[in-house]
Amino acid sequence: MIARADTLYDLGRSRVATPRAAAALGIFLGLFAFWLALPPVAARSVVVPGVVAGAAVAIGLWVVSRGDLRPGWGAVAAGIVGILGGAFATRATTSHLDVVITWSALVAATLRYATPLTFAAIGGMFSERSGVVNIGLEGMMLMGAFFGAWGADVTNSWVGGLLIGMAFGAGLAFVHAVFSIHLRADQIVSGTAVNFLALGITGYFFNDIYGNNGTPDDLAGIPDVRLAFLGHIPPHGLGSFLDDSFGQLNLMVWLSLALIPLSYVVMFKTPVGLRIRSVGEHPRAADTVGISVYGIRYACVTLSGALAAMGGAFLSIGFVHSFAENMTAGRGFIALAALIFGRWRPFGAFGAALLFGFASAVAPRLELVSGWANYGTLFQILPYALTLIAVAGVIGRSIPPAAVGRPYAKQ
Amino acid sequence: MTDAPQPSPKPAEALPSVAARLAFYQRASGIVTPLLTAVLAFFIGGLVVLATTHKNPLNTYKEIFNGTGLNWLFPWIHGTERASAALNLQQTLIYATTLALTGLAVAFAFRCGLFNIGGQGQYIVGSLVAVQMGIWFTSMSAVPHVLLAIIAASLAGALWGGIAGFLRASVGAHEVITTIMLNWIAVWAGLYLIQGPLQDPRAALVQVSVTKEVSPHSKLPVWWGNSALQGLHIGFFVALAALVVYWLVLSRTTLGYEVRAVGFNAEAARYGGINVARNYFLAMAISGLFAGLAGAIDILGWQFRIDQTGITVASQIAFLGIAVALLGRNTPIGVFLAAMLFAALTTGTSTRNLDPSVFRPELAGNLTRIIQGLVVLFVGADLLILYIWRLRRKLKLDRSKVLPQEVPQA
Fold first, then answer.
1. Buried b vs exposed e over A212-247: b needs ≥16 C-beta within 10 Å?
2. Stretch 252-311 of chain B: residues touching chain A, C-beta under 8 Å
3. Which positions in chain A touch B366 (Cβ < 8 Å)?
4. How far is A270 from chain B (nearest CA, A)?
5. ipTM value of the model?
6. String of b and e for B161-182 (b: at least 16 CB within 10 Å)?
7. What is the rounded radius of gyration, in angstroms, for the C-alpha atoms of chain A?
8. What is the DSSP letter of A318?
9. How far apart are CA A156 and CA A158, in angstroms?
10. Which of these, B30, B121, B147, B289, has the minimum number of CB atoms within 10 Å of its CB?
């Protein structure tokens, strides 16, 4: 019986293998079409990206007709992005394009903007995979941002700041955990409350301690990692590109990049991860086989607070080297969106964080070009609209852990 | 196993059933919990004040209270004090108008079992439409112009909320996520509009982009106070009317019955022949309508134009609607009282009204946020209040040496 199921499964896989590959090609072609219209190639006729992107759409439609909806529509969407982006780029002057598109700077900026989102999204993944909705990520980031800065000021070292920030983020997460696990409050209501609380607490202590002067200028900051050898990699163009993109990134950026595979291994390849997921999918069953549902959930929610606080601390002592009231400005919610867009998986969440980061990186560059200021603002809508479409199930359904949001009562 | 010292644990103790919770609420008349919550939140807030400023928190609270204008209600206040109290009370009521409406926007969805966190987006969309309607049709006379602007803005809010409702009804996308996305789309689209098509060209050189002002006809008349000093406009009565309509719709119409049935148990409602998807859509649309109305009232009542902070900061008043609805337990009177409480707190802690030597307004504003957070936290955890309630009962019963009798089981 089991063997038959396996064969069926394998058969199914081999049958869809070709359309899948075709869809991947389509997605690649769509993005390639856009790239053709940008520097350094900068095709000056809309026909060039149009033909390539048209091929992407055609492949996508073929895949859809074969019944593989998700990759198919993905290829169609990539093709449409290619056509629209190509048309837009070919209408702009090359000097404008050079201002906006400096690939190495874009890569570095995208990574910088994506880093806080990645930390918070991975944190959210632990919490939600264990069955606790964490809408309080925003507040936990904010705690990390303020107390990270405060800790760096008090201990005069960025390590102290980071640890203190993480502790306060975890503390706030623990409050969320107590209310949503033991007291079985509505997890969304509790998360909202935690956000209000963090806004008030950080604002209160920021004003109480630093007043109108703001955080001190000589705040200990998280150092950048200088990778000088990247510049010496043989072909000069490649070397300088790598150097400009990755040569001078903050330590936290690298930590976030390391966190992704690490959390993937923990979540999907270790017994601990299996327990977390089982608690999030079917707590009663997990309880029956002796897994402590409450213990796992407390640990995961607290961990999510610490991770989100790392993202917040990066903002204050890794990125801008100061703190301002409500400085996270909704990034926790965006991280939540990235988590859902990425289907509660580390690499997916990172991909979505990159998308959001890219939008944040491109928008100010668009505004640098005179007359394009408004396009920059409008461009910021894109990731939210994409997430909305993704959640609506047009490009495949995001299916949350089965027991997420439901309090568990021991029997 | 013959003489086990402890009685077997009753299920009701581990997890209070719906019936037990209902029985509790009926006994407490739904008043004890919110009151206890507010008192607890203010108590903890007072501890924060005591710990950080080393001053008597009661004095601080008294000073904040005097800034709210609620002392106008005391007959023994006279002279200039009374005049300034009246001014403050007008501000409190203007703020309470908006909060009551954004509170209703959250409460209506709650009654259908939905969590409308998208009040901000719906409010922004409503404000933008109201501004544009106020700028257009300058030749119209006052009453139809105001009506047109308000109705159009409410419908825009309803549309924005309806998108989330439709997605929930059709593909099951969770409304919390879709409304957060719709909030950000509204924020960025709003910023685009006021920096571009809607921007007042004469104000283009000013640092902050701002729209033109609505035509004088479309402004809501002021009925208490001086219109030059931002007196209380008739939008206050619109909010009162909205509270009545909310109650009428929920408790006196088929739609309200269906919405409540779906909110209580969607599966049972479906089994009973109620179209759950339709109710999800309608509940979110009506919620959005209230939030859009709030945006319109703010624009036509006292803002008259929108700038960047109006889009990004002022619209966050819609988030407070969550606290208002939760503390008000989704009842019209509760929503009104909760809106008054939070509005009074905001006016009382504003820079203008609070003496910095008593308590710095920047601190006080954040204290308000802490109190709001605590209120939402405690209100959400009725189990906590239930525990305290039972503890009290148990203590009382132990004293009278009567066997503890649990809440009747369902």
1. eeebeeebbbbeeeeeeebeeeeeeeebbbbbbbbb
2. none
3. 199-201, 203-204, 207
4. 30
5. 0.80
6. bbbbbbbbbeeebbbbbbbbbb
7. 23
8. I
9. 7
10. B147
Provide the pLDDT for residue B408: 44
Q: To the nearest whole angstrom, how far is the Cα of B101 from the nearest Cα of chain A?
A: 19
Residue A142 · residue A198 · CB < 8 Å = yes
Amino acid at site B296: A
User: Which residue from A179, A199, A207 is facing B380, i.e. has the nearest CB?
Assistant: A179
Tens of pLDDT, residue by residue over A267-297, are 999 999 999 999 999 999 999 999 999 999 9
Residues of chain A with CATH 1.10.3470: 102-391
Is B180 in contact with A336 (Cβ distance < 8 A)? yes
DSSP code of B199?
Answer: B
User: What is the Cα–Cα distance from A266 to B269, expressed in whole angstroms?
Assistant: 42
Query: What values do phi and psi take at A248, rounded to 5?
Result: -135, 65
Terminal Cα distance for chain A, rounded? 35
Hey, which CATH number is domain A102-391, 1.20.1050, 2.40.30, 1.10.3470, 1.10.10? 1.10.3470
Q: B323: which chain A residues are within 8 Å (Cβ-Cβ)?
A: 196
- For an interface test with A, give the residue of B37, B184, B375 to mutate (most A CBs within 10 A): B184
Taking the model in full, what pTM does it have? 0.83
pLDDT band at A4 (very low <50, low <70, confident <90, very high): very low
